[in-house]
Design brief:
This protein has helices spanning 12-17, 27-57, 63-68, 78-83, 101-128, 131-138, 141-152, 159-177, 179-182, 189-221, 226-251, 257-262, 268-295, 298-320, 326-357. It has 368 residues and is mainly α. The model is unreliable at 2-22 and 359-368 (pLDDT under 50).
């Protein structure tokens, strides 16, 4: 999922030295920007997930095409990059030598390839699983994020984070045991298991990407500005898109695209528009992700991204007639509980940081 690429975060010490631009906003302005970005993220991610399922339901079958559209809309991100350039580096990083372009390019290529692999796993998961199950399994990304952040970003485990990890893991386990009721004549038990495992693996890989991006900003780029975050998003998406195109050509799926389009259930125009709007929806979500990183934190952006996951099953029941059985409802409630636990820890961290900084409108960022 394209929207999964998030950026850096500040520690409380860094925040003391160089408050972000969000600290200079009035309270109502800050809340307006945050609300707008939350809307972009929730709406974009929900629409993209549902359109991805719609693509498969109407006869689409190219996993590499489904992977490509998750990042191919990246050129639209040049618009906010041109409209809101970062002209002044943060004081804390002004004296640090700029990293070589070769090192940054290597990092972008590595991250882009990992993102491409991650998107491919998500594509298979969305093909073999009902949308509701797929979205709930994706909620485990917060649990994986806590683990990777602990080892790579020195994130401390607290009782609430541990509670969130256990609950989200248990939620995913419930859905795994729910295999018999979820499998259908169209999807065998074997494919269901593959979809479940790949979606779980994609969630873990996504969380690894988050931690690696944060580590990259801390150790390599050392420049946390809006432009830097957008550039990370754009160039890694470019590499991921190139990898998806290579996969599309190497797999031979490109030969079937014409017949796939002609046989599409809603017609050729609908086929093209489904792919276009899926790509645009992922980029709308990406703008929300980047915006929340910039004005709040990468942790908050990740939490809001996870908030969309329990919302998707509701729409899946309405539009795709997914079954919402008792096990799935319990799994959803447990996932929401785990999400709330993680969000409450974020609230406690922010409250503590606000007291430390002593600024009534300052919203500090911290590691995810």
């Amino acid at each position: 999922m394209e929207l999964h690429m998030t950026g850096p975060s500040k520690s409380a010490t860094e925040a003391d030295r160089a408050p972000p631009p969000s600290s200079r906003l009035r309270s109502w302005q800050w809340w307006l920007i945050v609300a707008l970005n939350i809307f972009f993220l929730l709406a974009g991610q929900t629409a993209a997930t549902l359109l991805g399922r719609f693509y498969y339901d109407q006869g689409g079958n190219s996993k590499w095409m489904a992977t490509l559209v998750q990042t191919a809309g990246f050129p639209i991100l040049y618009l906010p990059l041109l409209l809101f350039p970062s002209t002044h580096p943060p004081p804390a990083t002004a004296i640090i030598p700029h990293p070589s372009h070769a090192n940054i390019a290597v990092v972008y290529v590595i991250l882009g390839l990992i993102i491409a692999a991650d998107n491919l796993m998500y594509s298979y998961g969305l093909l073999y699983l009902p949308v509701s199950t797929y979205s709930l399994v994706c909620a485990t990304q917060l649990a994986f994020n806590a683990v990777f952040s602990y080892y790579l970003n020195s994130q401390k485990f607290t009782a609430f984070i541990m509670n969130s990890v256990v609950l989200l893991t248990f939620s995913a386990a419930l859905l795994g045991f729910n295999e018999n009721s979820e499998s259908s004549a169209d999807v065998s038990k074997g494919k269901y298991a593959i979809g479940f495992i790949l979606t779980l693996g994609a969630s873990a890989t996504y969380s690894l990407i988050l931690s690696l991006m944060q580590l990259t900003f801390q150790k390599v780029i050392r420049n946390e500005t809006f432009s830097a975050v957008l550039e990370m998003q754009i160039y890694t998406a470019f590499v991921a898109s190139c990898a998806a195109v290579v996969g599309l050509l190497a797999s031979g799926e490109w030969k079937d695209l014409k017949s796939e389009m002609e046989a599409y259930g809603k017609g050729t125009v609908s086929y093209v528009m489904t792919l276009v709007w899926t790509g645009l929806s992922w980029q709308v979500a990406s703008v929300g992700v980047v915006g929340l990183i910039f004005v709040v934190s990468s942790l908050f952006s990740n939490v809001i991204s996870t908030l969309a996951l329990p919302v998707v099953p509701v729409f899946a029941v309405i539009f795709f007639h997914d079954k919402m059985n008792g096990v799935k409802i319990v799994a959803m409630l447990i996932a929401i509980w785990g999400f709330a636990s993680y969000l409450y820890q974020h609230y406690l961290d922010d409250s503590k940081a606000k007291k430390t900084v002593g600024h009534p409108e300052y919203v500090p960022a911290h590691g995810s």
